[in-house]
Design a protein that fits this description.
Blueprint lengths: L1 E8 L10 E5 L26 E5 L5 E4 L3 H14 L15 E4 L6 H17 L16 E9 L15 E6 L1
Length: about 170
Amino acid sequence: MVRMIGKVDSPSSPSQLPPIIETTIDRLGEDDGRASMISGRREGACKLGDILVIRPHNLGWLETKLQPPQLEFIWERVAEAKGVKDAKPTLAGIIDQSWELKDKDDWFFINVVDPLITRYQQEFDNIGHNTPVSLKHPYHLNTWWVNYQKENEFQPPHEHYGVWSFVNWF
């Protein structure tokens, strides 16, 4: 399994947002079909270009499938990163390989992350407004890395620094 992880530090401009599929989760274990949506993995629930909005009793999260050009961009960055800068020393878990990625020309941030930050702010809250800073700072992709995870390897519960965080699974 390949797992992509990134962090975004500290406002975003609105942009074209794809349609969303929305659900509310009341309690795990209820047998009305909503409880299974906590993972967002219901068959057919998240088609290419859709954004699945998950609302548990805290802030929630978004899930979406990346478009082919977005996936191509990621795989190009992964190919460039292999063997260049090891990210394993910064990880909490047991992972086979981890390499730091470079967001060439901020393309991934501008075309994927920033529109999702905007959608998150529309659906939930701007969690960045609680960041203690004295001046306005635009968000930017601070660190981005790829993990290669094999059977029996793991990432324990952990926190990321920064304002926003995302994960892509391949």
